[in-house]
Amino acid sequence: MKVGVLGAGGMGRTVIEHLHKIDGVEAVVACDLSEECLADVCEHYDIDGTTDVEEILGDSDVPLVFVTASTLGHKPLTVSALEAGKAVMCEKPMATKLADAREMVEAAERTGGFLQIGFELRYSLLYTKVKEWVDQGLLGEVMNTHCYYATSASRPKGSWRNRKSSSGGMFGEKLSHYVDLPRWWVGAKVSSVYSVCAPNVISHYQVRDNYHTTYRFDNGAVSHLSFIMGPPATFEGDSLQNVVSQQQGDGHALSYLVVGTKGAAAISVFDRTIKRWAFSKTPERFQSDWVEDLTWEEPEDHFYFHNTFDQTADIVRRVTEGLPPMTPPRDSYETTRLCFAAEESADTGRIVTMDEFDA
Ligand SMILES: NC(=O)c1ccc[n+]([C@@H]2O[C@H](COP(=O)([O-])OP(=O)(O)OC[C@H]3O[C@@H](n4cnc5c(N)ncnc54)[C@H](O)[C@@H]3O)[C@@H](O)[C@H]2O)c1
């Protein structure tokens, strides 16, 4: 298979590296608007490249493209690729506007094409372990989740990520992963969301640097996300992508507590811990027993953190075998809708119900 990579910046390079290691991928062709970036990538990986996306979309030898351009490019590239008959994997966040994300889903449904959004944490072993426990009934019905995420202000001044118009806002751009997971574990529809944010500490960001966001599911379950960017020690790039040196102990934190009717789980990226408790009722008390305590070694970090390799390999396999996406695009759209509703709540200071929030 020959695979197109549309957008050859940081994420495009990651995908190209993965594609080189995946059986059945015979050639990779890259596209980027920046000639300089393209030349560098093509030389480094010894692949062909073009600044004209139509060259790739018109190539009948390319059945699959990865949309790894910065977010403003996601909708036009995804819709054109689907209309050209390509299977598409598009990075999160889906788009800078909810209406654009909806157009992408509608294009997939209209063309009958393959569209998967890059929520690779659904492949990451840390989070699939919780899903496995949920599916095995070990946690019962998930009722309560809490995520605490603290990270440094890794984005340099001038980055497209720091502007709402080009990133769509911090919630979708960074936090969409961390509300997608509770949606997956709880398995119910989100009914309302409420965000409270302090004024930014990082004053040059035109997007928010902090959120306390609580959302309710229609089965009564509740999830909370506390996010703060700034205090942890400054680290070049994304600390989660750095699988060699751990940021544990310098203020970086990324943990979940997941509480169900029969048990609970606690996971922490920087501590490399996965724990499970089982609940029982004795005549005297509610009993909780610590029953599992798992960890992993540094060389496996990639597979426990942002497992983009297994996601890329799975997408190649699914397209080769004619299988549907792991997650239907409508489901990823629901996560996207929640992100925009969380921003709307932060803007207006009120609880936003999902029913009213569609456009
Ligand atoms: N899944 C994840 O965890 C994860 C991690 C990092 C980035 N991302 C997402 O991946 C996307 C790319 O991020 P990045 O870090 O690689 O950004 P980047 O700024 O490093 O690279 C983006 C590249 O896209 C190119 N580009 C922009 N519009 C284009 C178009 N229409 N056609 C072709 N090329 C175009 C730019 O020239 C640039 O080289 C973003 O949407 C980002 O949110 C996801």
Describe the structure.
The chain has 359 residues and is α/β, with parallel strands linked by helices. The protein folds into 2 domains: 2-118, NAD(P)-binding Rossmann-like Domain (Rossmann fold, 3-Layer(aba) Sandwich), CATH 3.40.50; 122-308 and 337-353, Dihydrodipicolinate Reductase, domain 2 (2-Layer Sandwich). It contains 11 helices and 15 strands. The protein has helices at residues 10-20, 35-45, 53-57, 74-83, 98-111, 125-135, 164-167, 170-186, 301-304, 308-321, 329-348; strands at 2-6, 27-31, 48-50, 64-67, 87-91, 115-118, 142-151, 190-196, 210-217, 222-229, 253-260, 263-268, 273-281, 286-294, 352-353. The strands form 2 sheets. A 9-stranded mixed sheet has the order 14-13-12-11-7-10-9-8-15, with helices on one face. Strands 3-2-1-4-5-6 form a 6-stranded parallel sheet, sandwiched between helices. Strand 11 and strand 12 (263-268) form a beta hairpin. Helix 1 crosses helix 10 and helix 5 (98-111) runs antiparallel to helix 11 (329-348). The chain is globular and about 70 Å long. The two termini are 38 Å apart.
Draw up the topology in text.
Blueprint: E1 2-6, H1 10-20, E2 27-31, H2 35-45, E3 48-50, H3 53-57, E4 64-67, H4 74-83, E5 87-91, H5 98-111, E6 115-118, H6 125-135, E7 142-151, H7 164-167, H8 170-186, E8 190-196, E9 210-217, E10 222-229, E11 253-260, E12 263-268, E13 273-281, E14 286-294, H9 301-304, H10 308-321, H11 329-348, E15 352-353
Parallel strand pairs: 1-2, 1-4, 2-3, 4-5, 5-6, 7-10
Antiparallel strand pairs: 7-11, 8-9, 8-15, 9-10, 11-12, 12-13, 13-14
Helix pairs in contact: 1-10, 4-5, 5-11, 8-11
